[in-house]
Structures are given as structure tokens and as C-alpha cells.
Amino acid sequence: MKFFQKMERKYGRYAIRNLMYYIIMMYVVGFVLVNVEPFFYWQYLSLDVAAILHGQVWRLVTFMIYPPTTSLIWIVFILLMYYSLGISLERVWGSFRFNVYIFMGILGHILAAFVAYLVFGEPLLLTPTFLNASVFFAFAATFPDEWFYIYFVIAIRAKWLALFEGATFLMLLIVGNTATRLEIVLSLANFIIFFLMTRDYRRVNPKEIKRKKDFKTQIRPKSRAHHVCAVCGRTDEDSPGMEFRYCSKCEGSYEYCMDHLYTHQHIKKSDQNEH
Fold first, then answer.
1. What is the spatial distance between Cα 124 and Cα 183, in angstroms, rounded to a whole number?
2. pLDDT digit string (tens) for 154-198?
3. Taking the CA of residue 235 as centre, how many other CA atoms within 13 Å lie in the half-sphere pointing to its CB?
4. Between the CA atoms of 221, 223, 226 and 228, what dihedral angle is there, to the nearest 10 degrees?
5. Residue 254: helix, strand or coil by DSSP?
6. How many angstroms separate the CA atoms of 208 and 260, rounded?
7. Domains and CATH numbers, the chain
8. In whole angstroms, what separates CA 59 from the centre of its chain?
9. pLDDT tens digits for 62-95?
10. Mean pLDDT, rounded, of the chain
């Protein structure tokens, strides 16, 4: 954890602000491309290790444009949802942590694709589909009590929706093909490894942030007044033109406004002890 904090202090200024915006823009381009020319992505842009080893290195980046859905009906809602999730995480975690989380997932896909190519002898065309799910898992872990509305009607908290999503993943691990299984494992691994790396989870938990904010509010002085009358409580903020003086006959630091400077009852330590 200390290592991660050192990295954040040293390289945090290089983090890409509003990273989710650029990812969403890539998905928009990918959505248009996939719907106009479906085979172009798989032939020239996908994470094909064999093609990369033959010089098509742009695939290390372009494979990321594959959209989370090819449905014209759902694409707007899904992109808006992922943008909202990403922005919320970046605001709570900070840009550096969010960058690390996303790029860890991307690098994990690339490394897994190369390893799979070495093991199976043929490329597995991995997409970032399940990488998006890891963003949702991170959101559910950070905001477990946030509400989601399925089909805009059924209300369910993020933590329960994440459990349902996890159960779906387990089913796909059984019935899915090799590429799907690998993408699921990478998505879950990215989520687990990141949270193990950043064990000070409470520091970025919204409830903890709210608790600290409330505490600071409670201990913060409610008034910036320099002078307060010991009798009536009037301050120099309430009456800017009023003069305040300390009474030399009172035992202690007692200050009075001019209305009570000569009319108050003098305070003695013996009187305080009796009370």
C-alpha cells in the first residue's frame, strides 16, 4: 500500500483526467464501425497476437474500441451508465487510482492474449466487454447502497446487482467459450488485485469521507468572532461598532460589551468553586 501511495505522489500528475470520457468516445467510434462494417474490426483492429507480431502494433490500442453492445436501442443507456460509474469512481478515488484500475485491466488483457497465443498456438480475440463489468464491480464496492433501476422500474441496490452479475459470470464460466472464460477471469482478477493493492479502502469509501467531513464540520468554529460578551453573548460580528473590554476586577479572562462592562456581577474564583 505504501508503494502505491509513493507511486501516486510521484506520477499522479501524469494521470489522464476524465479518462472515462475518452473511453466512451472510443466506444462510440467502435459502435459506428461495427454496425457499418462488422468485419473490419476483427480483421484490422482486434487483439490478434499473430498480426501484432507481424507488425500491426496498433491493435494493442484499437482493440479497446469494441463497444459494450451493438444494439442501437441500448447503446446510449449503457454508455451513459458507464460514464456515470467512471466519473463517480474518479471523483472518489482520484484520477491516478482510476487510471491505474483501467490500465491494469487493459494490460491484463494484452498479456493474457500473448500467453494464450503461446499456449494454444492460435490467437484468442479478446475484447474489453467484461472489463466494463469490472468498473461496475468497483462502483458496487465503493457505493454498495446506491440504487439502480432495472428497465427504469425495478429498484435494486448496487451490492445486490453486483452479486447477481457475479452469479451470471459463474454461469458463463461454465458454458462460455475459452475467450469468454478468460475475459471473465481477467475482469474479476483486475477487481480483486486492485483492491488488494489499495487496502486503505476506507479512505476512499464515501461513508468514511462523509464521516470525516461531518467531524470537521462539528469541530470547526461556528463563529469567527474575536470578542464575545460573557453576559449577553454579543460578538463583534453581531455588533461591528461595539467596543469590548476585559474587566480587571473579574478573576479570569472575561470580556464584556460596553452595555455590561459596568453593570455585570464580578466573577471570583471562590464563586466558581462553590458552583
1. 10
2. 788 888 888 888 898 888 888 888 888 888 888 888 888 887 766
3. 7
4. -110
5. coil
6. 46
7. 2-216 (1.20.1540), 223-275 (no CATH)
8. 29
9. 999 999 988 888 899 989 989 999 998 888 888 8
10. 82
